[in-house]
Amino acid sequence: MVTQYGIKYAVNLITAHFGDLVAKVCECLLRKGPLTLQAIVRSTELTSSQVKNSLLVLIQHNCVQAFILDQTGEHGDGAKQSTQYIALFDNIIQRWRFPKFLTMVSKKLDKQCAELLEGLLQHGRLSLKQMFDRAKSGDDVVQEAFVKLLNAHFIERCPASEPVLTNPTKEEEAARKRAAKSGKILEVQETLEQRVVEAAMPTEALRFLFATETEPTADGGKDKSNSSSVTPGEKRKHDALESEAECGATDEQVVLWRANFDEFIWCLRHKACIENVRARFDDGAVIVFGAMLEATRSAEKKVKTENSVPLSLSSIYEEVIKSEEGRNITFDRVRASLVQLSCPPFVKAANESYSVDFKKIIELAQNEEVESIVLKRYGRDAYRMFRLLSNSGHLLETDKVADATFVEKKETPIILYKLWKDDYLQLEKLQIGVKQIPFQLWKVNKNTLKVHVLDEMFHAAFNLSQRVAFELEQEKELSNVLQDKRVNRLRKRLLLESSQMKLDDAIMLFHDF
């Protein structure tokens, strides 16, 4: 979901990385949705050349996707095709997470892989030749790192430059009309964004394909000419570049590669789930849970998978003992851990099979995050009231809230009104009886609350990013000042950046997971 402060945050990231001109084009697309080149020129009042160059930068860095909208006439007229551009909000906010991605690759693979990935993150898209040319290491080392990243799905082929989309469905049109009336950011835009991304994505067989075979000769054998006259590194480079030609790449159409953000978010989602389990259960349960994630990962087709595929007890045990720490766990201990994990239902059991309930884990983590915000901002009494209403899931009268939370009845409506005013509660007023006595009923609407909390988080992230930028400017100005003042500034900035990282973890919980 894209909120108002989410857009501000995304535009701020683009401004910091690419300047005001590119950010203006990006903001136009984020606020207005897909537009043609001419429409962007009219909306931004920039020249056609400025808009084109800005779009090229945004496309190069995977922040905008071009697509062709195939519009068939209502009365059987000929189809009209127009190239439109849509901002990819999810990809834009990933730019703040690049340090997390590099750290992950360094730990899971090696430093050489991290260096290769860093080049892709810096430049957005690169061909194999460009990767070889900019690398400090030999070609054979670079190709080995490339293959490791590809096998781990941390990199992928770039999407099609202009996929063709048909007219929006009736459901999308209806949603768009409702959105125009409400004046809010709509899910219809997200639906269209998802359709564009899916249409542009290479097929699964091609997405992670890297062939190194040389072309067949006229007599049917492999062309191995000149293979003995080149060094192993040059031969690897030659084969790698030939693989681009085999998959349809020419001088005009070179195969480009980019970071696969989905894979990184998958890993971070799994890590968050494991940490959630670790906070509630012992090490044995954590090992069993981690083994289940590892065994079912390949079957997950999308990041926001609600449930893993089911596994038998034997399959889980087989996966557990693959790790060094899991070899000390007995079969019965695995069974006992699965019983533990079923309450709360992080793992669901059915017909002697077990599956991970991702949806439940994420929902519990989201609830705890919101409850912690309420506790810090409004105090313990408000926290107890909010928790009661959140867990009940239905409307409760003011007096019942007071009785259940042991809060003074005079204070209860005051606290509830504060929460309602800040959009944490939903209020319904009823009049009952002949005298029409007013009753106030309260509840937590988790769907609208999730959007509100996410918008608050984007607001905080926007403010933090601006404050960090200010501190950096101050550090530059104080370069010739006393050492103590410079150290204090540095300490303050590092604290702000640490807060940014923690806040981004919370944003991922509500937006990406």
Overall mean confidence score, pLDDT: 86
CATH superfamily heading of the largest domain: Winged helix-like DNA-binding domain superfamily/Winged helix DNA-binding domain
The CATH class name of the largest domain reads Mainly Alpha
Low-confidence stretches: 183-188, 213-237, 240-252
As for the number of domains, it is 5
Query: Largest sheet, described in full?
Result: 4 strands, mixed
Name some characteristics of this structure.
Arc Repressor Mutant, subunit A, 4-stranded mixed β-sheet, alpha+beta, 5 domains, 60% helix, 513 residues, 23 helices, 11% strand
Report on this structure.
InterPro entries: POLR3C_WHD (IPR055207), RNA_pol_III_RPC82-rel_HTH (IPR013197), RNA_pol_III_Rpc82_C (IPR008806), RPC3 (IPR039748), WH-like_DNA-bd_sf (IPR036388). It is found in: Nucleus. One of its GO terms (cellular component) is RNA polymerase III complex. It comes from Gossypium arboreum. GO terms for molecular function: single-stranded DNA binding. The chain is globular, with a radius of gyration of 27 Å. It is built from 23 helices and 13 strands. Helix 19 (380-392) packs across helix 21. The protein has 513 residues and is of the alpha+beta class. The protein has helices at residues 4-18, 20-32, 37-44, 48-60, 89-93, 98-108, 111-123, 128-134, 139-151, 170-182, 187-200, 204-207, 232-246, 261-278, 283-296, 313-320, 331-341, 358-378, 380-392, 398-405, 411-421, 446-477, 483-511; strands at residues 35-36, 64-71, 80-87, 126-127, 155-157, 164-166, 256-259, 311-312, 347-350, 353-356, 396-397, 426-432, 437-443. The chain is 60% helix and 11% strand. The chain folds into 5 domains: 4-94 and 161-196, Arc Repressor Mutant, subunit A, CATH 1.10.10.10; 109-158 and 203-216 and 229-259, Arc Repressor Mutant, subunit A (Orthogonal Bundle), CATH 1.10.10; 263-356, Arc Repressor Mutant, subunit A; 362-444, Winged helix-like DNA-binding domain superfamily/Winged helix DNA-binding domain (Arc Repressor Mutant, subunit A, Orthogonal Bundle); 464-511, no CATH class. The strands form 4 sheets. Strands 1-3-2-6 form a 4-stranded mixed β-sheet. It has a 3-stranded antiparallel β-sheet with strand order 4-7-5. The protein has a 3-stranded antiparallel β-sheet with strand order 8-10-9. It starts with a helix and ends with a helix.
